[in-house]
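Structure representation.

___
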Amino acid sequence: MPRMEVYTDHCKGCELCVEICPAGVIEMSEEINKLGYHPARYKGEGCTGCGFCFYACPEPDAITVYKKED
């Protein structure tokens, strides 16, 4: 199954990944990361592995997309 992973301590909460995700599987967390932002998080299922979130994210290393199970 494809999936995406957000490294929460790198996320600045811009929500670009949430807006661009065609499957609607990314949401903003209620928790606050070490930078003081509400980071994005994967809802847990439904990712298609398209990579739109990865390319939309301005923060290096904040999002990784896995196209198949590792």
Q: What stands out?
A: The chain has one domain: 3-66. Strands lie at 3-6, 26-28, 40-42, 63-66.
